[in-house]
Amino acid sequence: MKIHIAEHPLISHKLTVLRDQRTKSPTFRQLTEEIVTLLAYEATREIKTVPATVMTPVALFEGLELAQPRPVVVPILRAGLGMLEGMTRLIPTAEVGFLGMVRDHVTLQASTYANRLPENLEGRQCYILDPMLATGGTLIAAIEYLFERGATDITAITILSAPEGIAAVEEAFAGKDQNITLVTGAVDAKLNENGYIVPGLGDAGDRLYGVV
Ligand code: URA
Fold first, then answer.
1. Number of C-beta neighbours around residue 151 at 10 A
2. Each residue of 41-66: pLDDT tens digit?
3. Is 183 exposed, middle or buried, given 0-12, 13-18 or 19+ CB atoms closer than 10 A?
4. Separation CA 138–CA 110 (nearest Å)
5. Sign of the C-alpha dihedral computed for residues 74, 87, 158 and 79 taken in this order
């Protein structure tokens, strides 16, 4: 797995405000979108393009345009939804699929409760959005799900990651041919006994949308 950890003062600044327990949901949502847009810039560095020629007011120009089929953005419900706007701001032509996954608070196992995705993902570049890579269970299950539908090129974008989660994803897909990349805002110290990232930012879904 290729790993890119953002090292940019703007992302560090926004992450610090995001982590602050005093930051309220509206600001938390706004910052999440902004951070995702910055991460998406890095995550799409290898997005497929094809040559495109346009006529400027002065001369012909040999440029590039995004290739077909369109990339697919897959937010993991619920918290990944808070990242969608920030991603589609950068690639508005992307198709959006949804994957509903829930983590059992006791076993920390992830299971799928809803999906709305293209049946066939062959040849599609897929971008999974999930703010917190904690144990890795949810991300591993989501990647496996996309692989089953033919995806071979998957980039996961997370706001924060735990070393344990990164190691679990690496182990789960070691030796596989598929192309997996992780783009994350920061790698924190560890997980606590409840599977929360430390120092982290708490429960991302609750902080985005309030506790339900
Ligand atoms: N999910 C969260 O929302 N926060 C964590 O710290 C870990 C998983």
1. 25
2. 999 999 999 999 999 999 999 999 99
3. buried
4. 5
5. negative
Tell me: the pLDDT tens digits for 163-193? 999 999 999 999 887 799 999 999 999 999 9
Q: Rounded to two decimals, what is the model's pTM?
A: 0.95
Phi and psi at residue 118, to the nearest 5°: -60, 140
Residue 181 alpha carbon to ligand 1 centre in Å: 20
Q: Which CATH class for the 2-52+66-192 domain?
A: alpha beta
Domain residue spans of the chain: 2-52+66-192
Tokens 């190691």 belong to 167
Ligand 1: distance of its center to the CA of 133 in Å?
7
Q: Which of 28, 139, 201, 203 to mutate to test the pocket of ligand 1 (most atoms within 8 A of CB)?
A: 203
Question: Can you name the residues that pair with 100 across neighbouring β-strands?
Answer: 77, 114
pLDDT tens digit sequence for 12-31: 999 999 999 999 999 999 99
| Residue reference for tokens 């797995």 | 1
